[in-house]
Amino acid sequence: MYYPCELEAYLGGKKLLEIKNLKKSFGSNNVLKDISISVEKGEVVSIIGPSGSGKSTFLRCINYLERPEQGSISFAGVNFKAETVKKENIKYMRENTAMVFQQFNLFKEKTAKENIELGLKKVQKKSKEEASRIAEDLLIKVGLEDKRNHYPAHLSGGQQQRVAIARAVSLAPKIILFDEPTSALDPEMVGMVLEVIRKFVEEGQTMIIVSHEMNFVKEISDKVIFMNDGYVVEQGTPEEIFELSKEERTQQFLKRVNNH
Ligand SMILES: Nc1ncnc2c1ncn2[C@@H]1O[C@H](COP(=O)(O)OP(=O)(O)O)[C@@H](O)[C@H]1O
Ligand SMILES: [Mg+2]
User: Fold this and answer.
1) Residue 219 has pLDDT above 50, yes or no
2) CB neighbour list of residue 179: distance below 8 Å, 6 or more residues apart
3) Could you tell me if 233 and 227 are in contact, meaning their C-beta atoms sit under 8 angstroms apart?
4) For the chain, what percentages of helix, strand and coil (3-state, to nearest 5) are there?
5) What single-letter DSSP state applies at residue 47?
6) Exposed site from 6, 28, 59, 135, fewest CB < 10 Å?
């Protein structure tokens, strides 16, 4: 059978996502100066770094919530340049990624189950029955089957975030982008949310996670990226970053986080 060469490379188990020399400014503020990363299928890549270093902006550029000005993006066999991005490229990035935000961002007028069903019906045009079945399965996976008919206002932060994760997973994205998924939670809620993320990692879900939960990052990641001031300062295995870091800025950051 004939495959175009990019698709063949993808099917051969090479990089799922490769971003090269990505740049993004807000006015005169050069927030992302030169970011290159690659993610393989099934990998968990974590991004750590100080506040304001551009981590959220970078995730938002991946699914085109923000428009990068420069850079090349290759995602599951589709290649394009930010400079000449087409509408269909943006649509492709949005359809194949899902984002989980710090502030959950559930629809307030919809129940837990309806929040999960919405994208399945509207975006993926699944039947009512199929959407309901997938939502029920996911509610069980995130431990919220007894809360299916609750509105977000009647769920704890941790429960809302578990619904948001279920909603992200429901669309079977090639990659999930987590932006500090536990930062807005009371400490006692964090563990359950991390458990749910871990469960989807075990199922092979590819993800990029921005997080300050260093123990979780250490344990769950295949690769850790330290970002500072719009650059990738250092990247490597958890051991290479947390134990054997070669960069002073990484070491200073880790020392500061550990003293908290
Ligand atoms: N929509 C925006 N408009 C203008 N400046 C922004 C916007 N979003 C982020 N920034 C700026 O980009 C920089 C990096 O922010 P951000 O990506 O949120 O960093 P991090 O997530 O690492 O804390 C900050 O200086 C921030 O003020
Ligand atoms: Mg951020």
Assistant:
1) yes
2) 55, 56, 59, 99, 100, 101, 102, 210
3) yes
4) 45, 25, 30
5) E
6) 28
Note the pTM of the prediction, 2 decimals. 0.94
Say how far apart CA 210 and CA 59 lie, in whole Å.
9
> What does pLDDT average to over the chain?
94
Ligand with an atom nearest the CA of residue 180: 2
Decide if 182 contacts 193 (C-beta within 8 A).
Answer: yes
Nearest by Cα to 62 from 208, 160, 193: 208
Residue 162: count other Cβ atoms within 10 Å of its Cβ. 28
Residue whose structure tokens are 């902006």: 57
In the reported structure, the alpha carbon of residue 30 is separated from the centroid of ligand 1 by a whole-number distance in angstroms of: 10
Give the Å distance between the CA of 75 and the centre of ligand 2.
23
Burial bucket for residue 199 (CB in 10 Å: 0-12, 13-18, 19+): middle
> Which atom of ligand 1 lies at the shortest distance from residue 179's CA?
21
Across 87-93, average pLDDT = 97
